[in-house]
Amino acid sequence: MNDSSIDVSYQVNRQKIIFTGDIYVGKTSIINVLMGQKFNNDYEASIGVDFFSKTIKYKGKIIKLQIWDSAGQEKFRSLIPNYIRGSSLVFIVYDISNKKSFNNVNSWVNFVNNIENSNIVIVGNKIDLENKREVTYEEGKKYCEENNFDFFEVSAKNDINLNTMLFNSVDSLPFFNSINADGSSKEQ
Ligand code: G3D
Ligand code: MG
User: Which residues of 22-61 are buried (b: 16+ CB within 10 A; e: fewer)?
Assistant: First the structure.
């Protein structure tokens, strides 16, 4: 068997998506809701490497997403490079009720950029906590405009804006525009 027998459309369509950012900002919660599980206040902090597969159909195209949870690597930065490697889309999450998590976004950006040339999207989570907000929408937006990142504010708890965040971000990936609706690559 040589390389030409590998199914290229399958490779092109399988996209690794990861969530990173400070601990406790809601990464696992966001993934759970995207995967169709209910928001849960009681689950254990995730241990062990996990990815979930989600097949979406968008603009007539079928894409297989591999969504990875960080499994607590944010506590052990030495483990993060392997997690980031091979990703095409990285969501860097902060908590709008925690200024420190926003202040750390830029160091997460640098961390990712040193490892992989992925598309980065910035996400402010927990907008249901409006009365505890420490980071304004404008602050988040300004940082993203200056650095050319897409930006979404969401709530995992109330399921606000999560699918919009995912679909719009997939839409801006170069690969998405390089495949045809039947999953084959335009470049063949
Ligand atoms: P992490 O994976 O980034 O470490 P988790 O974060 O998903 O484990 O969430 C950390 C805490 O924030 C959890 O609280 C979770 O319930 C809460 N949380 C996550 N998303 C939201 C949200 O959108 N709104 C609110 N209000 N809380 C959220 P507990 O107390 O269960 O540990
Ligand atoms: Mg987690």
Answer: beebbbbbbbbbbeeeeeeeeeeebeeeeebebeeeeeeb
pLDDT given at position 180 = 74
Residue 57 DSSP code: E
Q: Is 113 helix (H, G, I), strand (E, B) or coil?
A: helix
- CA 80–ligand 1 middle distance (angstroms): 20
Distance 141 CA to ligand 1 centre (A): 22
CA of 117 to the centre of ligand 2 (A): 23
Mean pLDDT by 10 residues, the chain (188 residues): 46 78 94 77 50 83 84 67 89 98 96 94 98 98 98 98 95 80 65
Q: How far apart are CA 34 and CA 166, in angstroms?
A: 8
Phi first, then psi: what are they for 86, rounded to 5°? 85, 0
Q: What distance in Å separates the CA atoms of residue 16 and residue 25, rounded to the nearest whole number?
A: 21
Place of tokens 């607590």: 72
Nearest residue (by CA) to ligand 1, atom 30, is 41
Distance (Å, whole) CA 30 – CA 47: 16
Q: Any residues with Cβ below 6 Å from ligand 1, and which?
A: 23-29, 41, 45, 125-126, 128-129, 155-157
Phi, psi for residue 103 in degrees, rounded to 5 = -60, -25
What is the pLDDT at residue 177? 77
